[in-house]
Amino acid sequence: MLETRLGSNQLFETIFHNTQEMILVIDGQGKILLANKVFLANLKLQEPEVTGKKLKDFVSPIYEDHSFYDQIRETLRSKDSWQGDLYLRGKENLYPLYVRIKPFANPDRISRTMYLFSARDLSSEIVRLNHNLACFDQLTSLPNRFMFKKKLEYALEQGKRFQFNIGLLYINLDNFKYINKSYGYLAGDELLMQVSRRLETSARKADILGYFGGDEFVVALVNIALPRLAATIANRFLVKISLPFLVQQEKFNLGASIGISVFPADGSDYETLVCCAETAMHSLKEQPEPENSYRFFQQEMNFDSSLRLRLESDLRKALHKEEFELFFQPIVSLESQNISGLEALLRWRHPERGLIAPNQFIPIAEELGLIIPIGEWAIQSACRQAGSWQRLGIPPLEISVNLSQIQFRDKDILEKIKAIITESGIDPALLQIEITESSISEDIQAAVAVLQGLKDLGVKIAIDDFGTGTSSLGTLKNLPVDTLKLDRSFIRSLPESSNDQAIVQAILSLGKIMDLKIIAEGIETQDQLEFLQNTRCDAYQGFYYSRPLPGKEIAELLQNEILK
Ligand code: C2E
Ligand code: MG
Ligand code: MG
């Protein structure tokens, strides 16, 4: 017998390394115990780079969505193997593979399962092309938004685990639109390709490049020793971009504005970091400064500093000058499709700047302590408005008003709300106060006292933007809360994202057990609405039904509803 001639280990090794398939032996925790030579050769890796690592470390970041792993686990539970396409990352490239994963009992310890991973290289052109189309921009060959997000999210996970900094450069070319217009799109495209190649040659191997379309590029600087090194690297890119380009025998000079954000200082997720870097880039564009420069994101950047000083002084006078207005957004019952309530949303009608959204001035008002009188004005106006609609014959509707964390901590808040209720004559059961999770989670004891005080006044309480903070449904269990408003970040990717579907369903079922009313925020599409109609959600609000509208327009909308 072969076994006696070769010895079983030697036989095993010979077969293991000489088949045409790539083979791994993986333990129950996903750790790679053995890798055959074909696997190492195809991915251009050395054995120590593979054994002891997790399979996940080699899987393309496009699968970082955990539902993918859940799906494999699920299949392995019900069938004897999982088969499918998978991209693995080798030293230089992503490799498309057709993979089979089959569990087997560990012969040494019967109870523990191990996995045999066998794969065929599928590097055929078609497979590559599909992957390329989905993940790379065809003009610049750089990762597109989707792929860049996946790669950055993967880097962020590593950054959290190994505690390193990641700089994000948001690069916007100066003058590009002018070139496109004057010399035509072909010249523009050629120029974008050349810019991409220059960025590529200036980036380090570990950096992640991306093209966001138009004249916008991004570079994630993975693992920089100090946040300020991002500036040195940004400068290097600026120098490269400012060297003349030769397109169609014509010399072009370009510049760029680079906004910089840094993980973890400015944020720890993809959206926040991109948003901060983009804000920094825009603030640079608004400045009458020399072009071709970079700027770090700063918290107060929504406005640059001189503008901010002017706004502060305007904001101090705005209440007195009656420049605030309330807009109202309908909250619609999923069962009856009728408007069941309204959320009052503050606007500042600035005499020169026009209508300013709350996210732009409320943080300043909070810092200056002005939110206390402004917020009080908002509650008072909402209650008065509700009274005047009733006098127009509109049936009473629940009205929600947002309460800032600063107001929530104001020791006179209960007295103030009580006085407003008495003065306006509103049924307190029709007033709902919206507070965010963070108002509660900072000091639970104090929060319970205020919430109970509000309950005693007969007012309803909603937790706004639920799911974005740190509190859990467990924390809410002991609080006198009536309503949860599911943050729109969970809604945005519905119904496509199975992950978000699962989160929404879970919050809805737990919320129901706790007898809470649940309102979904940010419904923008018919598909999102249809998804919710098949859940236990009670109501929704969002642009799909109506944007927030001025009081007068809302009154018309409500009167039309009655006539329906
Ligand atoms: P919020 O309480 O979560 O209000 C909902 C926000 O989502 C509103 O923004 C609304 O216009 C927006 N929104 C509604 N439907 C959609 C949709 O389908 N898609 C998208 N993309 N957005 C949608 P707005 O009016 O800019 O208010 C922003 C935030 O400012 C509010 O968030 C709230 O936290 C705060 N705020 C507004 N009014 C007041 C107020 O009177 N007092 C206090 N303290 N905060 C306020
Ligand atoms: Mg709200
Ligand atoms: Mg909200």
Task: Count structural domains.
Answer: 3
Beta content comes to 15-25%
Q: Based on DSSP secondary structure assignment, what is the total number of beta strands?
A: 22
Assembly annotation: single chain
How confident is the prediction overall: mean pLDDT? 87
Silhouette: globular
CATH architecture of the largest domain: Alpha-Beta Barrel
The level 1 CATH classification of the largest domain is Alpha Beta
Q: How would you sum up the major sheet? A: 8 strands, mixed, barrel
Number of continuous helical runs? 23
Compounds present?
Answer: ligand C2E, magnesium ion
Q: What proportion of the residues is helical, as a percent range?
A: 40-55%
Characterization of the model:
Strand 3 and strand 4 form a beta hairpin. This protein has three domains: about 130 residues, 2-Layer Sandwich (Beta-Lactamase), CATH 3.30.450; about 160 residues, Reverse transcriptase/Diguanylate cyclase domain (Alpha-Beta Plaits), CATH 3.30.70.270; about 250 residues, TIM Barrel. The chain contains 23 helices and 22 strands. An eight-stranded mixed barrel has the order 13-14-16-17-18-19-20-21, surrounded by four helices. Strands 2-1-5-4-3 form a five-stranded antiparallel β-sheet. The longest helix has 21 residues. The relative contact order is 0.06. It is an alpha/beta fold. The N terminus is likely disordered. It starts with a helix and ends with a helix. About 45% of the residues lie in helices and about 25% in strands.
